[in-house]
Model the fold of this input.
Amino acid sequence: MHRFIPYILKTLWRHRVRTLLTVSGCAVALFVFCFVAAVQEGLEDLRRREEGQRLLVVFQANKFCPATSHLPQDYEPTIARVPGVREVVPMQVFTNNCRASLDVVVFYGVPAEKLRSVRAFTLLRGGWDDFQQHQDAAAVGRAVAARRRLNIGDRFSIGEITVTVAAIYACHNRVEENYVYTHLDFLQRRNRQSLVGTVTQFEVQLEDGAGGEFLGREIDEALRDGPVRTDTRPKGVFQTRSLGDLTDLINLAHYLGLASIGMVLALVATTTFMAVQDRVREHAVLQTLGFSGLRIFALVMSESVLLSLVGGALGVGFAMAVLRWGGLAIGAEAVTIAFTPSADVAAMGLAVALGTGVVAGFAPGWQAAGTEIVPALRSA
Done:
């Protein structure tokens, strides 16, 4: 078939406006498909992260948004004494929006000396010493820095919080790149508020072999006589619960992805049918020259697949570039889902483009292959 590539290209370019419109429509549809797939991939990545099962989050019972959770900081030694607990990290959390948002920014205030030991960060710019030495310093995730165009030394304000960027980090867990880490006591004293002595939550690291669900009940029992009731859950369960309705919306977005596939199918099939109708006599001439019905079928099928693949490759490539450099994420209640531009998403998009091209070209190809020579040559 490679001998007929020039013929296929000339055929498509003969109606260049129609071809370009079809390719553009396919690119837009595959762009949307990849975005939907990236969000769903991010949600699945959040669910399967191993640390989600090896970490517990102690939160105030019957509270949801971090702004409503206030636990006594002196719960820390009590939690640390529970058998199976390796380390306890008190955290003050501040977010610019507890509702679902595409531009949620989450601040985590942690003891400066514990940050590097509890997070596997790779420093891209700046230094940890600068972070530890300055009270208003912040370690900013790469995704946040990309969205807000931040660099070392920049002053960064969200609501009542103003920090200086001291470090920009990357992490194997892309969700972490959407957070800003500051000093615990800095967030406790923000905007003249006196939250000293209270924290939003505790993050509990478990010893190897310790059972998360069982240990969570043990921690809640140990704190039962305290002034504030707690609800301790594995981090993965806590995050899923915090996302709540947003998870359902992301799952419903699956239908948007299917609609994108349908759009590609309709565009390519329509264009290919129109091309076949325009070339009825041409296909009859090809048959008189010795082309079999199978060969004509293959030519039409190649046109359909080429249209779909070119449009799909453009859409997938642009989507991967935006996802890679845009640092996009969606979040709710201080839990974010990163838009994950993985190779699997790109391969899925190209596979969809190939599959729809094959399906869309089947009926027009079958019609062209069954062309009767004499009636076709008599047609105007």
Summary: The chain has two domains: 2-47+248-378, 63-228. Residues 63-228 form one domain. The mean pLDDT is 81.
